[in-house]
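ok so i was messing around last nite and threw this chain in just to see what happens. nothing serious, just curious
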Amino acid sequence: MRSIVARYYWAIRFVIKQQPELKKYLTCCRHCQILFFTHPRNAGRNDLGCPFGCREARRRQKSTERSVAYNRSKDGKDKKVKLNQRRNQIKDIPASTTDRSVGSKVEADRTILFHIQMVISLIEGYWVVLKNIKALVAKLLRQHSIDLEKNIFYQYQVPP
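result:
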């Protein structure tokens, strides 16, 4: 993990040396203290979470706090009683086949893709299309086959 972080900071320092005007977009995560580039409209803010997980964790934490507060209120308790009564009345409904963990993984990948798009756009000086970013990430994350005789490439599937 240290080597990944070291390479990440090396890349940030390299970009700042090449384009010092981007230093104003560099900010520190309020939770994990990692440096990251932020959107120009958020330049100078110090209350941001990084796009590497802290932002999503904070959003989930606040959502849980709001839900707990609502469920402890009179309206929330009444609604819960009605939902439980309705649940007991409904029978023979098949269970949902969707998996929430897969959806959150796709959302995390999309968040990282949007962050990569924003950072590359800052560095290049013009807005880079998300389709180009997906193609670049797919190319970088391509995995070669273990079998030396076959030239089959495994392709990383970028979320839509």
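not much to say yet. The beta strands are 26-28, 35-37, 143-144, 153-154.
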